[in-house]
Design goal:
It comes from Paenibacillus eucommiae. One of its GO terms (molecular function) is ATP binding. This is D-methionine transport system ATP-binding protein. Keywords: Amino-acid transport, ATP-binding, Cell membrane, Membrane, Nucleotide-binding, Translocase, Transport. Helices cover 32% and strands 29% of the residues. With 321 residues, it is an alpha/beta fold. The strands form three sheets. It has a six-stranded mixed beta sheet, sandwiched between helices. The relative contact order is 0.13. The chain folds into two domains: 229 residues, P-loop containing nucleotide triphosphate hydrolases (Rossmann fold, 3-Layer(aba) Sandwich); 71 residues, 2-Layer Sandwich (Alpha-Beta Plaits), CATH 3.30.70.260. Strand 7, helix 6 and strand 8 form a beta-alpha-beta unit. Adenosine-5'-triphosphate binds next to helix 1. Adenosine-5'-triphosphate (ATP) binds next to helix 1.
């Protein structure tokens, strides 16, 4: 378990994390989201002791990180894996040597190193690339090597800093599946820093929303998406829909669909109100353990009240954006 209590940090007098209280349970896949500069990466780096903090407590499996000596901190960090957007592989070393690297760094006395490297490579499904150099691999394959390198030390926690941000959607999906498998089969707690809402929806059971160094919300990811979506408004539009024409006279609203309810809502809305509206974005999202969806429509302000009346009358869940 990772417990963060009233943690604050400044950089050059600027407060970048302010009174953060957060608990990440063993086995969670926890998403940390927020706009650029919100403090996500700094918080992630505090968790593995790469970054110090000014006040508060950070306790990982009953170990108070801020009280560790340098030697103890080094040992502690060997039990936490980390992967990055840019993979950070050694370009002149083979896949095998890259995975071996942390064992050398931490002067590990692990037995059967060769067998262990082959095991982690099999887990990330890259056994056939063992003697290749990073430049001979695709982005997704490089991230798999980075994951294997993180796993070689048998970590209890894996930290992912924008690990899929540089990848195509299909490749992202396969990396997310791999992270889920690692969480499920090895029981590794995963903390994911991302600006991609689809990543949080796809794999995270919990999430924390950071804004200007403060924690705006924390809890069950699906509940935050469905019950308090306004908290995520800052990110909407970056990924879910593109709306270049900012027509002031049009109002956007979101219709929530839970478990297949209101499948026919758009056709009913069009036929029964006669209002012409635009579908901006729509889709079902697969949350870690269920499916729910949202439809975003745009309507001229003069006709907005007819839509509002219809949705309320038919008890359809919606909100104005
Ligand atoms: N080493 C540093 N020295 C000084 N300021 C820093 C340092 N690292 C981060 N900051 C500042 O701390 C704030 C939080 O940065 P951080 O990288 O944690 O945000 P983030 O939410 O991860 O953003 P992004 O999504 O862009 O990576 C920013 O204002 C950043 O400029």
């Amino acid at each position: 378990m990772i417990e963060i209590r009233n943690l604050s940090k400044t950089f050059d007098g600027k407060q970048v994390l302010q009174g953060i209280d957060l608990v990440i349970e063993k086995g969670d896949i926890y998403g940390l989201v927020g706009v650029s500069g919100a403090g996500k990466s700094t918080l992630l780096r505090c968790i593995n002791g790469l970054e110090s903090f000014d006040s508060g407590d950070l306790i990982v499996d009953s170990v108070q990180i801020n009280r560790l000596s340098n030697k103890e901190l080094r040992y502690f960090r060997s039990g936490i894996g980390m992967i990055f957007q840019q993979f950070s592989l050694l370009e002149r070393k083979t896949v095998y040597e890259n995975i071996l690297f942390p064992l050398k760094c931490f002067k590990s006395k692990m037995n059967n190193v060769d067998q262990r490297i082959r095991e982690v490579l099999e887990l990330v499904e890259l056994s056939d690339k063992i003697n290749m150099l990073p430049r001979q691999l695709s982005g997704g394959q490089k991230q798999r090597v980075a994951i294997a390198r993180a796993l070689i030390m048998n970590p209890k926690i894996l930290l992912c800093d924008e690990a899929t941000s540089a990848l195509d959607p299909n490749i992202t999906q396969s990396i997310l599946e791999l992270l889920k498998k690692i969480n499920r089969e090895l029981g590794i707690t995963i903390v994911v820093v991302t600006h991609q809402m689809s990543v949080v929806k796809g794999i995270c059971n919990k999430m924390g929303v950071l804004s200007s160094g403060k924690l705006k919300a924390a809890g069950n990811a699906q509940e935050i998406f469905l019950n308090t979506p306004e908290i995520l408004d800052d990110f909407m539009g970056e990924e879910n829909y593109r709306d270049g024409t900012s027509d002031q006279k049009k109002i956007k609203l979101e219709i929530i669909q839970r478990s297949g309810e209101n499948d026919d809502i758009l056709s009913r809305l069009a036929i029964e109100t006669g209002v012409k509206f635009e579908l901006v974005w729509g889709g079902l999202s697969k949350y870690s353990d269920s499916i729910a969806g949202a439809l975003m429509i745009r309507v001229h302000e003069e006709e907005y009240s007819r839509i509002e009346d219809y949705l309320d009358k038919h008890r359809v869940e919606w909100r104005k954006l």
